[in-house]
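# step 3/5: fold
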Amino acid sequence: MPNHSLNRLLSSLEECKGRFGRGETHRVEKFENWALVLALISDLAGWTPPEKRDLVKILRAKTSRNEMQYLRLTQKHPRLRRELLRLGSHA
């Protein structure tokens, strides 16, 4: 089920990944792990544009060396937190 919003989000995510330089394999690995998690969120295409923009910010923060910003942003994203808890409770 192609969705223009989802395609734009994926383009943004690819753009983030494309900004990693040589020697930053740890960042690419973190990014790819998140891509697997995002694939499990069934209603991701229905997220609002601000929710998707915030998600991209969270992914950028997660791939940085200091994860404090990632933690702060994740705490402020209720929909992502709810999905992460849902996914974690099925493990």
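# step 4/5: annotate
Residues 4-89 form one domain.
# step 5/5: archive (pending)
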